Amino acid sequence: MYNQKMYGLGAVRSGIRELFEYGLRQAAIVGKENVFDFSLGNPSIPSPPQVNEAIADIVMNEDTLQVHGYTSAPGYDGVRKAVADNLNARFGTKVKPQNLFFTCGAAPGLISVLKALIADSDSEIVAIAPFFPEYRPFTEANGGKLVVVPPDMENFQINFAALEEALSPNTQAIIVNSPNNPSGVVYTRETLEKLAALLTRKGGEYGHPIYLIADEPYRELVYGGVEVPFIPTIYKNTIVCYSWSKSLSLPGERIGYVYVPEDAEDSSAIYCAVAGAARASGHVCPPSLIQRAVARCVEQMPDLAAYDENRTLLYNELSRMGYTMAKPDGAFYLFIQAPGGDSDAFSNKAKEHNLLVVPGTSFGCKEYFRICYCVSNDMIRRSLPVFETLIHEYK
Ligand code: PLP
Pick from 14, 75, 67, 80: which is nearest to 283 by CA? Predict the structure, then answer.
C-alpha cells in the first residue's frame, strides 16, 4: 500500500518538463541550432556580479562552521533584518525581522502558507486563470480544493464578476501572482484596490478573513517603469511568498521568504502555523551560505536589458504576423492566442517544426499558449520564420 495521491503526482510528468526533455532529445537528432525551445522559465541572464563576490567573500572570510552550519529555522538574524529594512525603505512599511520566515524559494513558501491556511477538506483556495499549474497539487496535496476563476480575456487583469461567484464561506485564501506567469501581465493598483474591497466585503459577510497569498517571484521583473504595488499596503490580510529565483537568477540555490504582516488578522497564529507547516514538510533552514549571500545583495536589481530586448522583438514580430497577445509588462513570458483556438493542437503542430511552446490548458486557459523569452536573442531571430510558417498553415 502506498499513497495514491502522491503516486499520481509523481507518475504524471509536468507537461513543461516533458517538452523541455523532448527538446533535448530532438537536439541530439536534428542539431541544437534547429530546436527552438521556449518551454522552461529558467533565467538566461547571469546573477549580478555582487552575488558571486558575496559568496566568494563569505566562503573565504567568514567562520566556516557558521557558514555551513544550521541557522535558526526562520532564517539567521542578519538576513531577516536586511530584508525587513529593505522592504521598509522601499514600501514605507513597518516589517520586523520576526515577521519573516525564510524558505527554500517561493514554492515551499506557498506550500507552507497553504498548509497553514487549509483548515479541513471544505477549505477552498481561489486561483485566477491563467495561473501557475503547481497551485493545484500544492492545494490538493494539502487537503484543500482549488477553485479556478476564469480569465479576463480582454487584458488578463481580474474577471471580477466570475471572482465574486467563485467566493464562498469556505474560501480561505486567494492566490495572486503579479507579474504573472504565464501572461506577463502586472495587476494595476486599480485592480488590486478593487480586489481588496471585494475581499474585505466578502470576509465581513462570511465572518472570517479571506487571506490573499501574493506569489511574488517576478516582483522585480518589470519593464518601462511599470508599478508593481506592494499588496500588503493595499490589503492587510496579505501573506507574501517571495523568491530570488528569478530576480537574482538563483533558481537552483533555493532561497525566498514568507512575510506575514503584523496587522493581518491572527497574524501571530498564522506565522506560527506557517512555521509548523514548514516543519511538517521537513524544513530545517534554507541553505546557510545563500542566506548570507542574499543578505548582502538585497539592494541588487537584475539588469533586464536582454529580457526587454527579447520581449520587444517577439511582441512586435509576432503581432506583425497576426498573433494576438496581452502586452506583457513583467516576468519573462508571452501568452499568445493559439491560431485555431486549441493550444494543445497548436503546440503539437509547432513540435513538428521543433518549436516548443507550452499549451495554456494547465494554466486554465486552453485557447492560449505560453512562450518563455528567457532564451538567446539569436534563437528568437532564427525561430521567427517558423512562427510565420505556422500561422500561415492556419490561414
Ligand atoms: N510561483 C510562480 C508563479 C512561478 O512561476 C514559480 C517558478 O517558476 C514559482 C512560484 C516557484 O519559484 P521558486 O523557484 O522560488 O520556488
Answer: 75
